[in-house]
Write a structure and sequence with these properties.
With 158 residues, the chain is of the alpha/beta class.
Length: 158
C-alpha cells in the first residue's frame, strides 16, 4: 500500500535529505511512499506559508489530510525546542497526529556533513569545517565548496 507524504521544506537540501531518509525507512518496512512536495524553495517563510495554505484549503474543501506530513525547518541557531514549538503552533488539529517535524540544528547542510566517514566514501575527501558554527550560510558554503567539483552537484543546484 502506498502512503502519501506531504512535504514542506525550506529548500532542495531539506527535500533531498528527508526524501532519502523516508524512502530508506519505507523500504525497510516494505512500504511505498509518494511525496507531494508543497514547498522546497524559498526558505522558512515560504514553507510555513505553504503549510498554512495547504491546511486551510483542505479544511475549506473538507478534504482528507495526507497519510503523513513532514515539515522540515532549520533551527537557525534557535533552541531546538523553540523551533519545533514554532512549527507545532501552526499545525491544525486534523494534522497533529500525522505530522513529523524535523528541525536540523543549526542547518540542514550540517546534517549532510554530519558523518565524515560516509562523506569521504561518497565524495572522496574529508569535509573541513568548524563543528559548531552559528553563522548564516556557513555550512551551505562548506558543502558547496566540498561538492563543487562533482558534475552531479552542478545539476542538483541548478
Amino acid at each position: 500500500m502506498t502512503k502519501t507524504v506531504a512535504l514542506f521544506a525550506e529548500d532542495l537540501a531539506h527535500e533531498e535529505f528527508i526524501k532519502a531518509l523516508a524512502y530508506r525507512i519505507a523500504k525497510e518496512e516494505n512500504r511505498l511512499v509518494y511525496f507531494d512536495v508543497h514547498s522546497a524553495r524559498g526558505g522558512h517563510g515560504k514553507a510555513m506559508q505553504e503549510l498554512n495554505v495547504f491546511q486551510k484549503t483542505l479544511a475549506i474543501k473538507h478534504g482528507h489530510p495526507p497519510d503523513l506530513s513532514i515539515v522540515c525547518i532549520d533551527t537557525n541557531c534557535k533552541r531546538y525546542s523553540q523551533a519545533r514549538r514554532d512549527v507545532e503552533n501552526r499545525i491544525q488539529p486534523d494534522f497533529k497526529n500525522r505530522t513529523i517535524i524535523a528541525c536540523p540544528d543549526p542547518h540542514i547542510e550540517r546534517w549532510h556533513l554530519a558523518d565524515p566517514p560516509s562523506f569521504v566514501d561518497v565524495i572522496g575527501k574529508h569535509p573541513n569545517f568548524v563543528s559548531r558554527k552559528c553563522e548564516r550560510d556557513y555550512y551551505k558554503r562548506i558543502l558547496k565548496r566540498q561538492l563543487s567539483k562533482l558534475a552531479t552537484f552542478r545539476l542538483w543546484t541548478e
